[in-house]
Amino acid sequence: MIRVAVSGAAGRMGRLAMKTVAEAEGLELVGGYDPGHARETIAGIRVSADRAAAASTAQVVVEFTVPGVVVDNLAGWHGLGVSAVVGTSGFDRAKVDRVRSLWTDGPSRCLLVPNFSIAAVLMMHFAELAAPHFSASEIIEMHHDRKADAPSGTALTTAEMIAAAGGRQDRAVESEELMPGARGAATGARIHSVRLPGLLARQDVIFGTPGETLTIRHDTLDRESFMPGVLLAIRGVQSLPDPVTVGLESLLGI
């Protein structure tokens, strides 16, 4: 039985994670941490504003908070000797390096997950496979209007994977922007972020080369789609060989 606490317990993803863990075979929900909702009861657990109290008996903490507090929370979980599964967005390479410098010793593990959707992980893997065969690529990511950051962690990770796989950005002309930002964020593959009410999450990775294009698209229609990945991460994080791992790929065998 793996004992689990959830950080950001009262948020949309936190509440769903609390309910999912409480109902999952082989897992025991033992705590919830959310300073803004202390003493609220979710999935039968009283939420705490005290980090140490929330994770006092936990082996794994699932982190669903916001970019501004996540690194401090991770320092706290590491100090308590608890493994962390992190779904908070906004982990660019610099922030990942900060976590690696923090999480260097002890038996606990940290798994940073840009996207818990197994289908989204496969989408990124397919983009990595396609990258060296095309002249250039662009990423369009679309999310609901309550998402706190842009671009998404999934888009950033996809761009990094394309670059690492040998993806080129060879265009005949680098178009002049008549309005700043019109060509998206330049991170190798350019990223365009859309935030609209009515959306949940979608990402298109578009590759082009003379005479043809390839579009790899993933749609998230319900947050329930993230929960199999959350459970996979909880069950696998403590067995990971490195102190800090990025993505579900190693747990999926890809």
Can you walk me through this structure?
With 254 residues, the protein is an alpha/beta fold. It folds into two domains: 2-112 and 223-252, NAD(P)-binding Rossmann-like Domain (Rossmann fold, 3-Layer(aba) Sandwich), CATH 3.40.50; 118-220, Dihydrodipicolinate Reductase, domain 2 (2-Layer Sandwich). It has helices spanning 12-23, 51-54, 67-79, 93-102, 118-130, 153-164, 227-236, 249-252, and strands spanning 2-7, 27-33, 41-42, 45-46, 60-63, 83-86, 110-112, 136-143, 190-195, 201-209, 212-220, 244-246. It has a six-stranded parallel beta sheet, with helices on both faces. Helix 4 links the parallel strand 6 and strand 7. Helix 3 runs parallel beside helix 4 (93-102) and helix 5 packs parallel to helix 6 (153-164). The longest helix is centred in the first third of the chain and has 13 residues, at 67-79. The radius of gyration is 19 Å and the shape is elongated. The relative contact order is 0.17.
Low-confidence stretches: none
The helix/strand order is EHEEEHEHEHEHEHEEEHEH
> What is the makeup of the main sheet?
6 strands, parallel
Strand percentage = 15-25%
Instruction: Please give the number of β-strands.
Output: 12
Basic shape = elongated
Examine the coordinates and then state which fold CATH places here, giving the name of the CATH topology of the largest domain.
Answer: Rossmann fold
H/I helix tally: 8
**CATH level 1 class label of the largest domain:** Alpha Beta
How far the N terminus sits from the C terminus, by CA atoms, comes to 27 Å
Backbone CA Rg: 19 Å
Average pLDDT metric: 94
Strand-pairing-aware structural class: alpha/beta
CATH superfamily of the largest domain: NAD(P)-binding Rossmann-like Domain
Q: In percent, how helical is the residue content?
A: 25-40%
Integer count of domains: 2
CATH architecture of the largest domain: 3-Layer(aba) Sandwich
Main sheet strand line-up: 2-1-5-6-7-12
